[in-house]
Amino acid sequence: MPNIYDISERSGVSIATVSRVLNGSPKVSEATKNKVLAVMDELGYTPNVFARGLGLNTMNTVGIMCSDSSDPFLANAVYYLEQNLRKHGYDSFLCCTGYELQNKKNYLELILTKRVDGLILVGSSLLEPNDEDNLYIKEAASHVPVMLMNGVLKGAGIYSVVCDDCGAVSSVTERLIKSGRKRILYLYTAESGSGLQKLKGYKEALKANGIKCDKDLIRLLPCDIENTRHLLSGLYTSGLRFDAVVCSEDRLAVGAIKAAKDMGLSIPGDLQVVGYNNSLLALCTDPELTSIDNHVETLSATAVKCLTDVFQGKRIPAKTIIQNALVQRETTRFQ
Amino acid sequence: MPNIYDISERSGVSIATVSRVLNGSPKVSEATKNKVLAVMDELGYTPNVFARGLGLNTMNTVGIMCSDSSDPFLANAVYYLEQNLRKHGYDSFLCCTGYELQNKKNYLELILTKRVDGLILVGSSLLEPNDEDNLYIKEAASHVPVMLMNGVLKGAGIYSVVCDDCGAVSSVTERLIKSGRKRILYLYTAESGSGLQKLKGYKEALKANGIKCDKDLIRLLPCDIENTRHLLSGLYTSGLRFDAVVCSEDRLAVGAIKAAKDMGLSIPGDLQVVGYNNSLLALCTDPELTSIDNHVETLSATAVKCLTDVFQGKRIPAKTIIQNALVQRETTRFQ
DNA sequence: CACGTCGATGTAAGCGTTTACATAGCGATT
DNA sequence: AATCGCTATGTAAACGCTTACATCGACGTG
Known about the structure:
The structure is a homodimer of 335-residue chains.
Chain A: H1 4-11, H2 15-22, H3 30-43, H4 49-56, E1 61-66, H5 72-87, E2 91-96, H6 101-113, E3 118-122, H7 135-141, E4 146-149, E5 158-163, H8 165-178, E6 184-188, H9 195-208, E7 218-220, H10 225-237, E8 244-247, H11 250-263, E9 272-276, H12 281-284, E10 290-293, H13 296-311, E11 319-322, E12 325-327
Parallel strand pairs in A: 1-2, 1-3, 3-4, 4-5, 5-11, 6-7, 6-8, 8-9, 9-10
Antiparallel strand pairs in A: 10-12
The structure holds a DNA duplex (30 and 30 nucleotides).
């Protein structure tokens, strides 16, 4: 592979000049520049990133840490992040950490070793319930800017882009109540980091409407269709009654729809169902699922925009909020 | 940030010895090794990858080129690839190319610039119909080993891991025929690279059973639920009749199920439906979708295994075939 | 006892860039 | 004509590591 010396020799200029051409420095005459470019093209030269990295101590790469890129929502996020990063001239270094805290710590260390220019953390269990467990993120932020997608953590060099999950759930719950529902089930998963935010919204809506919060109607469960289906059927059989279900994830909602069929409940007549993320799944069910869309595209674009702003030394707010929107389909009936 | 000289100084050995410790060289006494490790730990030292890369001309990184990681099947593939690569000690450099040929060419050039140790190409439109358009892959293979997932191309340094798509479709089509279906619709998308392989299987099955192939029953369409739904309803309204649908992608099958409902056809009584990829979507529909599972997990693991074997100088077959399996659910009824 | 061997460690060159600083050439200013 | 300043270009050091080769001491062998 040709290196900068080959180009230098062949084009009769010094390596410094070649390097200047490479970096688009203005202090090179048009003539030399063209000559050098011609030689580069002729020899099929590509600069060596390692050498470049050594000098500049950057590789124009952003690390994406994602708990599980096979989750439809996260897959979308990774996709849009990658697209947007590239648009801004950055490459993506992907890391799927899974849900184990220790793994996440290990991966984070690893990714920092790679000398990425910044980090984007995305994914369900982004933040541990115990704040002490999040120290590793603060540690990372002391090296490079860290962008949290759908999670909030305070600290120098840590920025967040979040949806108004609390508000969205509060609003949809309120609408369910206004449409006459009184016993609203709330299902959430541990993997969904903002599950607690959403729960907060749920409780707020109940309170604002003078409905007492029934612990039996709040369920933490794994993010799995079949499991949810059986849980709900079981609850129903054992006598629990409910007339609406709000879920922190579409998959749970799919399970709820299946369960309704098992129980002989009509949707949305006997049971209204609301999902979250507005994923492809919402279009597959019958009836089609009403879901809260958190604009993963906007979310991703904003995360990248903010991060690159930080790179350029701009000051940005520590927290940026994106509004999400309810996409109404067939599993609900309210104004 | 501390560098190798700091460690050397602090531990009273030369940088060569430090480097040896770093690389696990056997020619370091246990005592020195421990001392050096202690100092590294104390100073929080992490080797600089660029410097390392400069010397070794490798960064233990594999480039993953994926047309669209928001596609559920590809998202899964990317996930498993990343997991397996890490297990083998490699990092992943992700690149979502989209479906434009020119983009793919650009990205490939870019990714090679990064000095990856190898490439894994995954994704629907992996291979262009026109063989000349695939030259850029051969070009890439002249630099580093290239692994094709679900696509075949001959050339030095190009390896493939594929499912027996042709056989799987042939087999399922035959079973549909045996169950009494005569007018079987075949739907495929341009994005699905193996759509043509699958089509071949479809035709083979018809031929083997003495059924004439009706061009009207073979449709190329975009990979979209709503679009498929409307197309089928339209065809039905305009008089086309069919009693089974085989699809090259689950999303098409979801559209078909929706269309059946529109047309008042019962599934699987009037219409049997088969999807492909056995994605999450298959579990969401009602009735649940029978789908061909191409073992993305095995496929990914095999791709990574083969590639790392190549890295180690082992000889591997240019083409490895994985068997796929039919997962029967509610949209079909045959033995 | 001289010598070869071997294992542990050190020295220094090299990897391919970037860039601060030096230099050369040339027109403008005095 | 000497000086200044500017632009285009060159020189060389630095980035942090790997590794071939050199060195050194200890030990076994004839």
